Amino acid sequence: MSKLYTFHGGIELPENKQQSTGRPIGTPPLPARLCLPLSQNLGNPAKPCVAVGDRVLKGQRIAEADGTVSAALHAPTSGTVVEIAPRAFAHPSGLAETAIVIEADGRDEWQPRQGFPLWQSAEPAEVRRFLRDMGVVGLGGSMFPTSLKLASETLDTLVINGAECEPYISCDDLLMRERAADIVAGIAIVTRLMQPKQVLIGIEDNKSEAIAAMRAACMNTPYRVVAVPTKYPSGSAKQLIRVLTGIEIPHGMRYTDMGVQCFNVGTVYSVCRAVEHGEPVISRIVTLSGAVARPQNVEALLGTPVTELMAWAGLSPRNDGVILGGPMTGFRLSDLSVGITKSSNCLLGSSPKLFPPRPPAMPCIRCGECADACPAKLQPMDLFWFAKTKDFGKAQERNLFDCIECGACSYVCPSQLPLVDYYRFAKSEIWAAERDKKASDRARSRHEFRLFRIEREKIEKAQRLAERSTAAKAAPQTATTAGTNSHLTPSAEDKSAAIKAAMERAAALKATGKESPVMQSEEAKQAAIQAAMERAAARKAAREAAGETPLQPPSASDEAKKAAIQAAMERAAAQRAAQAAASVGLPETPAAPIVPNNVLDDAKKAAIQAAMARAAAKKAEREAAEVNQRSGAAPATNALDDAKKAAIKAAMERAAAKKAALDTADAAPPATDTSPAAPAAQPAAMDDAKRAAIKAAMERAAARKAARDAEQGRDTEQDKDS
Amino acid sequence: MHSPHIAKPTTVSVIMFKVLAALVPGLILSVFFNGIGVLAQLALATATALLAEAAMLKLRGVPVRFFLRDGSAVLTAWLLALTMPSLGAWWLIVVATLFAIVIAKQLYGGLGNNPFNPAMAGFAAVIVAFPAQMAQWASPGVPLNALQQLAYIFTHQLPSSGAPDAVAPATSLGLLKTRMLLDGYDVSQFFATPLYGHVAGFGGVWIALAYLAGGLFLWRQRLIPWQTPVAMLVGAASVALPLWQYDPVHFANPLFHLTASATMLAAFFIVTDPVTAPTTSRGRLIFGFLVGVLLYVIRVFGGMPDAVAFAVLIMNIAVPFIDHTIKPPVFGAKRKGGPA
């Protein structure tokens, strides 16, 4: 015997299981119509792949898995698809869900059944895909697609859940008694896929026949059947894992991250039926009990209307409704015409005698009974208080979302407080608030991006204009010897363009009403534009020079000069940009109207630098000429080499500048300046923008992750098999 | 409408009446040792409590019969009657009960919302306001018959036959204190006096044992936690024992303190009041322990020999803080030494 652990809390309940365990699993008559909601798994509802009027065979796929978190749906019997429309759905909300309605033809004709005989040698992923297409989901109640839960290929412990702790329900009990061999065959398949070090089958010790049957079926296998103490909710996956292994899986953590996975006996049974026999999930065992004349378990086709099943079991005329699920976690059906789904484990005829209405609630007397009963080790009386006062933040802080809604606290509450209802209310309010927040965040970011786009288009326009005019001026001057004051002329054009751009920006600023932080980035943009314009001019000159070089080998010294000038201009532009960037940081940065002066000054500075560079180039040229003369070797070649080198260097600088600009742009989309220039200015000015953007991106990622985790947590933790 | 569709049959009323039942043995012994006056006090308190509760419920506009049936007012009345002097004037217990029900309970929002134990608040109010009238215990040496006790309670007249010592000024704790202060007794001399042997000494021990039995019954019924009573008794003993070891001449045996007066009543019926105690196990241990320590400190070093009320009320103040501070780990949270 392995060591058993206990979980905190839990309650003893009147079992009321013996009513439905006296008879074997029955087969109710074939219903005339089957109503199959597409949402029979957690995640995306299946996508219909049949049309109204199609004839379908038993086991034929009628809806396909939509994405990874989904599972297929199959026709439970042969017949005709008569409707694909929203129909009442077995859900507490009573809302309609799209469903496929099949009119049975009474022949119950199977399609050719194709199992997966090579599962032993196949890739696990193939088997998982097969199971998804066979519609295998968690039959313990979670309806979580089994293919996803099988995804881990190593495991310490595989837990098979046959605890079935909720009163009245005995479908797993009967399944284990009558079909233990198939369950064990299913475990073998799961074991092959997940390679667990041990397999533990947990069954509450009040099901001695099921334990005996399972032990017999496991005789020649390494699987161990463990009788666990009867205590509600030991059938909850986390609690059962705790009892069998001592491991407590925190909220939001994947089971497989802790080396454990848990499947309901019904689920592994359907794995076996699918893989070995090619039977998709088209039926399940349902306990019919409560206020009925003939309580028993039946194998009911999915989509069988509740009314028909209850009529077959002899629903008491004194009933006051039907409860789907057990008395602890089930809910009253508002519409009895709904079809049963893959999660419908029990139908209870309700009567005032069996399930009397809850007496009026008294105030909470803080007795702490609920805390003693809570299997999630929460402080339910505190959560109740926070939910009642709508202090949802505090409720979340005190782990409201760890609540598995088992109902133990409500059951023991001497004040008859409907505690779980309070928690459901708080949870739904929090979800609604998060949805609202997401929606408004999305709207806000969309608005902000629109403003940014308008601004960017204006800047681009101004820049294009500036480049065009620069090009127009530069064109005739290329013919003249480099080193004239040609650079000053386009700067006049630059000035007017810059003025125009600045005015546009000012207007835009006024329109958006943005304040100083934006101003700074505006300045940065301005500087970037100016630098870009200068650089564009320089580039043009360089391009021309480079293009001319091979054509004019004799004027090699001219080429060298030109290249030197270009390099100097590049440097000047870079310096200019750096200055602009520095000025951006200063609080006394001149506002838009003063910009022209700036431009002029900068242009002058650039011109001076260019002149200095020219002088240096001339000197270099002279020296080069002297060297050439002294060496007597081909002077043109040498000069050409130098020119080439300079040109290459300039090109490399440009490339570096471009790269830097691109990097900045990538990192900070909202502040992107499409100008590829001013590598020195942009990073500095955009640091804030970048940081903000990165932070926003990280937050988004975190939020996404949290949402995913929450979903996963919900999925897995509700894998209650009672 | 919503799950769960079944509920445990243990309601607030059931709990309250089981607690009342658990008080009965102690009550019987109290009547046996302290006289019929106890029953008179009990009747006065119960009637006052029910009337005050009904009036306040009506004023607050909540269902009167529904809440009157919860039994919480009766329990408050009984606890008061069992802690008040058996021969106290009739109006004294009426005032105490009114204060408990009207001010300490209903003005705070009724059952479940009162920060202070109502019975202890009522007791404290009258002992502060009427200290002399609170010293009206039946004297063991000169027993009054039932009629004489009732006459004294309602008319404050002693029989003409003349029995000036018929009414004792205090419980054993008070006696111990005054004898040591005024007459220079040490502890052993005091225990040798016939007064101790009878008043709350011998009889008191029996009553305390009856309360203990009632408390064990409640614990077996899972209606009270073990943490608060045990922690309170340990808390009182933890101060009494070293002091007694250190100076047995001036400090009484810890057992005397544990069995004296209302110690057992407090441990099993007063600090276990769920409304005014912490909700967590650790919180209950801290709360109970500190009540015990305070009880001893106030008794021995303070001016109030009947210190239960003050010890409990002081710790009631700390309950919200204790509950706020102590947050037990949830399922799956890391624990030291645990397997997960």
Entry keywords:
heterodimer, A: 722 residues, alpha/beta, five-stranded mixed β-sheet, four-stranded antiparallel β-sheet, 11% strand, elongated, B: 340 residues, mainly alpha, two-stranded antiparallel sheet, 16 helices, 2 strands, globular, disordered C terminus
Instruction: Indicate the low-confidence ranges of chain A by residue numbers.
Output: 479-490, 513-519, 548-556, 583-597, 630-639, 664-686, 713-722
If strands are numbered along the chain, what order do they take across the biggest sheet of chain A?
13-12-16-14-15
Provide the gyration radius of chain A in Å. Answer: 38 Å
How many strands, which pairing sense, and closed or not: the largest β-sheet of chain A? Answer: 5 strands, mixed
Helix-strand topology string of chain B: HHHHHHEHEHHHHHHHHH
Protein described:
Chain A: Its EC number is 7.-.-.-. The complex is a heterodimer of chains A (722) and B (340). Chain A is α/β, with parallel strands linked by helices. Chain A is built from 19 helices and 16 strands. In chain A, helix 10 packs across helix 13 and helix 18 (635-667) crosses helix 19. The longest helix of chain A has 59 residues, at 419-477. With 340 residues, chain B is mainly alpha-helical. Chain B has helices at residues 12-34, 37-60, 64-68, 72-83, 90-105, 118-129, 146-155, 172-182, 187-192, 194-198, 202-220, 227-246, 254-259, 263-270, 281-301, 308-325, and strands spanning 137-138, 167-168. Chain B has a domain at 9-169.
Topology:
The complex is a heterodimer of chains A (722) and B (340).
Chain A lengths: L17 H4 L11 E5 L9 E2 L6 E2 L4 E4 L8 E2 L4 E10 L7 E9 L19 H10 L12 H4 L5 E7 L9 H24 L1 E9 L3 H10 L6 E5 L8 H9 L14 E5 H13 L5 E8 L5 E6 L4 H8 L8 E3 L6 E2 L13 E4 L19 H5 L6 H9 L3 H6 L10 H5 L6 H59 L10 H25 L3 H33 L7 H30 L9 H37 L3 H33 L13 H37 L5
Parallel strand pairs in A: 8-9, 8-11, 9-10, 12-16
Antiparallel strand pairs in A: 1-7, 2-4, 3-6, 4-5, 6-7, 12-13, 14-15, 14-16
Helix pairs in contact in A: 4-5, 4-7, 10-13, 13-14, 13-15, 14-15, 14-17, 15-16, 15-19, 16-17, 16-18, 16-19, 18-19
Chain B lengths: L11 H23 L2 H24 L3 H5 L3 H12 L6 H16 L12 H12 L7 E2 L7 H10 L11 E2 L3 H11 L4 H6 L1 H5 L3 H19 L6 H20 L7 H6 L3 H8 L10 H21 L6 H18 L15
Antiparallel strand pairs in B: 1-2
EC number (chain A): 7.-.-.-
Keywords (chain A): 4Fe-4S, Cell inner membrane, Cell membrane, Coiled coil, Electron transport, Iron, Iron-sulfur, Membrane, Metal-binding, Repeat, Translocase, Transport
Enzyme class (chain A): translocase
